[in-house]
Design goal:
homodimer, 411 residues, alpha+beta, L-amino peptidase D-ALA esterase/amidase, Ubiquitin-like (UB roll), 2 domains, six-stranded mixed beta sheet, five-stranded mixed beta sheet
Chain lengths: 411, 411
């Protein structure tokens, strides 16, 4: 798969004290690459997380949900190439065997092991490969870095996606590394707020599980919950954050703890960057689109209208064609099922007012809009003229590349 | 545009007593074809109709809504190539001028004239062309037939779509002719229950406006409300039925009138055929897909799950590729937001059980399923295992053709 034209270079990422990385070749598909990731966390590492709201979650998702309330993590294990979703008892048993093997080898409780899998739905995870892969990874712990970790969890991803932030917690500098996979089946609908999107954040800050959960939910609401590639929500979406505590700060237990706001801001900012990287790797994407809705009756109403625009195949194909077809934006506002008034509605592309109060502006010149649409980053704004509600959603254009990728994904 | 591989031949259609047909070349686009249709109805013709629920309706839609309560029709005028939607005062004035010109030339009230327009959004209907087109059409009344009428209202349609039914009303034989345009922006959301879909039914039966409305709403619920091409709902969707009364039956005023059930059945059956023809002309379509959901908690819940499957780009691209990727059906059930239980869910393709109670069936043989998917008509069934709710939705596959058509529709 050719690298997305919207790809970004992989950043320099520091080690996070208290974390050891290994990858291994479990061989879930016939490919010549590592497809299993193991992160080992030092004792005392806290965890928080959000999982898909799909009614058909994978066993890995169910395991994470069971383990999260304990708040402690010693390992993350990720399988790429097989999502293990909708695989019944065989899939559950294979995932459980893998988790138990990690716990046995690292001498921890199984409830401190967090599994995730991504890939084809409906084929049980091959138990032997899953277990022997874990053994190989444990033997190699500490030998890999973040780039290898990120590459090992990719499926249709065309470039590895990661980001880094720092936060001053009092006079202690904490580090946050995040990495993510996902390019299709992306409309994260994580329980609190879709793709198989797997996103992981690792920090050396000391943070209580409760506050980590609170900060992560807020970060998700402004990042992964605001992106869509195709409106399809995976059975396996998972966002997990691990805090080793090795930075040595006074543990953050609530927003009033010294440095808590800096940490929450850094986490939100990191998640925003990761979310936009997922859109930049949207299947077939050639343009990154920000859909901004203002003037809605509420922020939530604005978000729904923005998603109606961002998920409209007709809007996305028009932008793919560089066509300033603002009428399709009107159509998508009209069908959203949210309060809207045709004769109050205004549309902007790249800041240029195209239509105002229900009609095209007088003397409309398509030139500047066409120039904006020729670029890699496109901004669409709909002003509903009703209230103060606002929201932004990020998506990508819909191209023949998306069709090609998905018409023969399994082959 | 090449004809859809799913096209059907144009049927033989009878004249409907009390109806005269004309088409004209208004020249809304730079094309060498008639793009204006005028139907003249005999005095006493009754009318019923449903229009889009979009919050951004065209002035033509608003006019139909205002005129429908009077229940009487003398003319239908349809413009193709310009939807006149979102065109403010200029568009409203142009449409009003056209309606008034029809009324003046046919010596009737403007409220007996029903306009519809389809095409690009945001460009005011050119008033001069709209008026002179009407004059040319009036001069030619009676010179055209149903084929010319159907062709005149098409835009991205690749074949003309019409159907015919008869109903015995006591000992009187009534005829129903229906014709429709639409191939993209199709997810009709007509007020009662989407594309620019324009569908018109003309009958010589004598029917009261009230019963015609009742029968039409029921027919819509089982036809146009159950199709989707791209999940995008037009600003201009319109379904109108005209009854000239020339068959001479005792007027149908309610479901207890003699022959009323036969009429309602024929109307519903006709609308179902028209709706499926629209899907067969779905932009880029190569396969007609029936998505059937059974075992839901209610019929409405079943319909929502069916639409979630039918609108999923990942399901539609898989079928385009002939890929029996039933995992994507699981994904679409899971994201629908309706009651569902992974471990009760079963999936069939073409009647072949693929997955049962949350996992692939033992000894699953993809051969028969792949053979089914290689055909032109594909059946997908999801059994939720919860209750007696059921619904069917029809859609088409999502191909590179859809992208090509829509990335440069306006050029």
């Amino acid at each position: 798969m050719a690298k997305s034209p919207l790809a970004r270079p992989f950043p320099d990422l520091p080690d996070i004290p208290g974390v050891r990385i290994a990858t291994a070749r479990a061989g879930y598909k016939a490919w010549a690459r590592d497809d299993l990731l193991l992160l080992e966390f030092a004792p005392g590492t806290k965890v928080a997380g959000l999982t898909t709201r799909s009614k058909c979650p994978s066993p890995e998702v169910e395991t994470c949900r069971r383990h999260l309330p304990y708040g402690e993590a010693r390992a993350l294990v990720v399988n790429a190439g097989n999502s293990n979703a909708f695989t019944g008892a065989a899939g559950r048993a294979a995932s459980a065997a893998q988790v138990e093997e990690v716990a046995r080898l690292l001498c921890c409780w199984p409830r401190a092991v967090f599994p995730a899998s991504t890939g084809v739905i409906g084929v049980p995870l091959p138990r032997d490969k899953a277990v022997s892969g874990v053994r190989a990874a444990v033997a190699a712990l500490g030998a890999s870095g973040w780039l290898a970790a990120t590459q090992a969890i990719g499926t249709t991803d065309t470039f590895p996606k990661a980001a880094f932030r720092e936060a001053m917690l009092g006079n202690v500098r904490a580090r946050l590394v995040g990495f993510v996979k996902g390019s299709g089946m992306i409309a994260p609908d994580l329980a609190a707020s879709g793709a198989t999107m797997l996103a992981f954040v690792v920090t050396d800050a000391a943070v209580s599980p409760g506050f980590l959960q609170e900060a992560l939910a807020a970060a998700n609401a402004g990042s992964f919950a605001c992106i869509t590639v195709d409106g399809d929500t995976s059975t396996s979406d998972t966002l997990l954050a691990f805090a080793t505590g090795r930075a040595g700060n006074v543990p953050l237990t609530g927003i009033d703890s010294p440095g808590a706001d800096a940490f929450a801001f850094a986490l939100a900012d990191l998640c925003r960057e990761l979310a936009l990287l997922v859109v930049r790797d949207g299947e077939g994407a050639r343009k990154l689109i920000e859909v901004r809705v203002i003037g809605a009756v509420s922020d939530e109403s604005a978000r729904r209208v923005a998603l109606s625009i961002a998920n409209s195949p007709l809007v996305k194909t028009a932008i793919a064609g560089g066509d300033a077809n603002w009428g399709r934006v009107v159509m998508a506002v009209g069908k959203a099922g949210e309060p809207a008034e045709r004769d109050l509605l205004s549309i902007r592309f790249g800041g240029v007012l195209v239509a105002r109060h229900g009609a095209v502006v007088e003397g409309y010149d398509e030139g500047p809009v066409a120039a904006h649409l020729a670029g890699e980053e496109v901004e669409v704004e709909a002003d509903l003229g009703l209230g103060a509600g606002r929201a932004s959603v990020w998506t990508c254009d819909l191209t023949e590349g998306y069709i090609r990728i998905n018409a023969d994904y399994r082959s």
